[in-house]
Design a protein that fits this description.
single chain, six-stranded parallel sheet, Rossmann fold, alpha/beta, globular, 16 helices, seven-stranded parallel sheet
């Protein structure tokens, strides 16, 4: 079935006139719609640009989106998706998929300008593969730390210089707006709410010390929300299920299985995490502190120290919270109370940090849409110069 759907999607794309292939956006998953929807709206409505949205997720909200200058195509994971990447003819191709060219999905044989949107504020050289970003033409960076890391890698590995655009982070802006608008009615005697939302992998909180941590927090009287990363529920479902089932009957325990929901983030007083880049969104977006459980670093690039740059996931920890050893979980309640004791001072400090770490706060989407249009116009002109009779 996916082979037929893939052939159908590929045929639909091939039949599109060039005006619909000037800007192509590719989505691996419906979760990417959050990254793209604002940009697409600005491109379509404010700038009058046609965009073709190709997604490999049948439940992607983009497939039901109807708007002038917008066209969506479903192209599932299949042989035809691989072919689509290899022989795709478009001007600008925008995506949030890492590792282009490193696995089965390659750059096109035809001239295409690839734009990568960073979907987190995290660093580029520890949690991700060493060469995850080498094969893009433009990178839309969230903050100056990503620019410094990419430029340093280009320098020491003698790579071509990519176009690095000072983009910002739309998700952070969304969290800030949601936090400012959110009003939670709390009553005297209501327990504080602790959200546990770590990264995934064998060394993450839920896989190493989740059982003990949840027990300590419940015993201390907190309302505890367990929010696993979607990769954890895929890779180690038995671990997540065992934790959920163990505490499901406790009246102050809550399990959330949707990473795209925001209610648990907004209701919580504090986040407990490990090496998840979400911690930066939480602290800088909601101006609330984070308690970091110091499990081993999640490293996909064994050569990350070559750059001589401390990843922002590590350098930011003491600026937005405290670090606690997994062997000292009994001290978690005291650390939480310390972090929540002076909310005004924390708020002032995190706002200053946010101004240093994030580009163009509040302007990422309009600025990004204008830059995509500029790149698309530039690529269109280059194509017409190469193929004056067939450029379309």
């Amino acid at each position: 079935m996916s082979l037929f759907s893939g052939w159908k999607g590929w045929r639909q794309f091939k039949k599109l006139p060039w005006e619909w292939r000037n800007i192509v956006i590719y989505s691996e998953s419906g979760q990417d719609w959050r990254q793209f929807s604002g940009l697409i709206g600005h491109l379509n409505q404010n700038l009058g640009c046609k965009t073709c949205y190709v997604t490999s997720d049948k439940s992607d909200p983009g497939l039901s989106h109807v708007a002038e200058n917008f066209h969506a195509i479903y192209l599932p994971e299949s042989l035809f998706r691989t072919i689509f990447f290899q022989v795709n003819q478009s001007d600008v191709f925008v995506l949030t998929m890492m590792d282009l060219g490193n696995m089965q999905l390659k750059r096109s044989l035809h001239p295409v300008h690839y734009v990568y949107l960073f979907h987190s504020m995290g660093s580029t050289h520890m949690v991700d593969n060493e060469n995850s970003f080498d094969h893009y033409d433009s990178l839309f960076c969230a903050g100056p730390h990503q620019v410094a890391e990419i430029r340093k890698r280009e320098e020491i590995k003698h790579l071509r210089a990519k176009h690095l655009f000072d983009y910002g982070h739309p998700r952070l802006e969304e969290v800030i707006d949601l936090g400012r608008a959110y009003r939670l009615e709390k009553h005297a005697g209501d327990p504080r709410t602790v959200l546990i939302a770590p990264t995934w992998g064998d060394t993450s909180i839920f896989n190493t010390c989740g059982r003990e941590l949840i027990a300590v927090l419940l015993d201390a009287g907190y309302h505890v929300i367990m929010r696993p990363h979607h990769q954890s529920t895929r890779q180690t479902p038995q671990v997540i299920a065992a934790l959920r089932d163990r505490y499901a009957a406790h009246q102050r325990f809550e399990y959330v299985d949707r990473m795209d929901e925001t209610d648990s983030i907004l209701r919580s007083d504090i986040l407990v995490s490990d090496w998840s880049a979400m911690a930066m969104e939480y602290a800088m977006g909601l101006e609330k502190p984070v308690l970091f459980i110091d499990v081993p670093r999640r490293i996909r690039n064994p050569n990350w120290k070559e750059l001589g740059i401390e990843p922002v996931e590590a350098s930011i920890r003491r600026q937005v919270g405290e670090i606690l050893s997994p062997q000292s979980l009994d001290q978690a309640p005291a650390a939480i109370e310390r972090l929540l004791a002076t909310p005004g001072r924390f708020r002032d400090e995190v706002r200053e940090l946010r101004a240093q770490k994030v580009f163009h706060l509040g302007h990422s989407i309009p600025n990004g849409a204008i830059e995509i249009k500029r790149l698309a116009d530039e690529c269109l002109q280059a194509r017409l110069e190469r193929e004056p009779l067939t450029g379309g």
